[in-house]
Specification:
single chain; about 200 residues; mainly beta; 8-stranded mixed sheet; 5-stranded antiparallel sheet; 1 helix; about 0% helix; globular; disordered N terminus
Length: about 200
């Protein structure tokens, strides 16, 4: 099932602090404020690549009760050259238990390169700087790039996977649509939250 970005800003909600940690198997190139460790797979992950800069495949685990909003901030976009304007963000999920709530963005005013998970939606954490809608935002080849904040909600208990997301954007009037493999495992039952919750997707192999 494909999630589609919502334009309207939903009410502010708080998300759970991430409890899980994964071993890092590749290099992390930017300073990242992490709650749990990000696992990096040793290969690139975008398909039909336009001038979107290299995005290594990666993923992590989060506890999320049904109805809770989780905000993934570990996605930073850059171009190899030129300036891109975002025209859409879609998530790639297994099943129908993960809903896309909305996507915001922040530019070079961030205190750190990336914030793995933020605790509020809409995003209000200090140190992030100005936050604006992702659609219409720009990103370029600068050192800081543009950070996405992808807000999702689990709609039913279980063990769920967001496999990645698509970025639609334009550069000099030319449209592109690239895929980024960013595997986020949601643990959404008391047994998984309080016990062992395995990482799903290719990164578990």
């Amino acid at each position: 099932m494909l999630g589609h970005m919502t334009v309207e800003a939903p009410p502010a909600e708080k998300s759970r602090v991430l409890k899980r940690a994964l071993n890092i198997t590749g290099a992390v190139l930017m300073a990242v404020v992490t709650i749990g460790s990000i696992i990096a797979f040793d290969r690139a992950s975008a398909l039909s690549r336009g001038p979107l800069g290299p995005m290594g495949a990666h993923g992590w685990i989060v506890d999320a009760e049904p109805g809770e909003i989780i905000v993934d901030g570990s996605e930073v976009l850059k171009t190899t050259s030129g300036t891109a304007t975002i025209t859409g963000i879609d998530i790639d999920v297994e099943g129908d238990a993960i809903e896309l709530v909305g996507v915001s963005a922040a530019g070079a005013g961030r205190e750190y390169g990336a914030y793995q998970q933020v605790k509020s939606w809409p995003v209000t954490e200090p140190g992030i700087g100005e936050v604006f809608p992702a659609v219409g935002a720009t990103f370029d080849s600068g050192d800081w790039g543009t950070e996405l904040f992808i807000a999702m909600k689990v709609t039913q208990p279980g063990h769920h996977l967001r496999k990645g997301y698509w970025v639609s954007y334009e550069v000099d009037g030319h449209p592109y649509r690239d895929y980024v493999q960013a595997e986020l495992t949601f643990c959404s039952t008391p047994e998984l939250i309080d016990g062992e919750c395995e990482f799903l997707g290719e990164g578990a192999e």
